[in-house]
Amino acid sequence: MSNNTVIITSLNDAWAEPQSMFDLLLKSFRIGNQTERFLKHLVVVNVDQKAYARCLKLHPHCYRLNTNGSDFSGQADFMTADYLKIVWRKIDFLGKVLDLGYSFVFTVLLFLYICF
After folding, report:
1. What is the pLDDT along the chain (116 residues), one digit of tens a residue?
2. φ and ψ at 15, to 5 degrees?
3. What is the pTM of this model?
4. For the purposes of burial, counting CB atoms within 10 Å of the CB of 98, is it exposed (0-12), middle (13-18) or buried (19 or more)?
5. What angle do CA 100, 110, 38 make, to 5 degrees?
6. Rounded Cα gap, residues 42 and 5, in angstroms
7. CB neighbour burial string for 45-59, b if at least 16 within 10 angstroms, e if fewer
């Protein structure tokens, strides 16, 4: 991908455990048909410290999303105050990614679980 496209996924405490969906996601890039090259474009946005620490052990492109004191380590139910904080914080982050001149795509499985 020479066009400044990044693949973005979110990770929180629930998905940071060993043998979790995060491990499966990374493995799928490694063993897929000509997909390992996309790992260098994968940016993992971490919404809590535990997820960030785990990410750094497994992948070089981890970003700790500043949550301004909110705890995003658990699941937020749809349209609750915590859910809306998560959504707006991620939208702010994505705006910054665009401002830096990057395009992005999401991994569906992890992003949808964390947001919904």
Report:
1. 467 999 999 888 878 889 888 898 899 899 989 999 999 999 999 988 999 999 999 999 999 988 776 666 666 677 888 778 878 888 899 999 999 999 999 875 544 444 44
2. -100, 0
3. 0.82
4. exposed
5. 55
6. 9
7. bbbbebbbebbeeeb
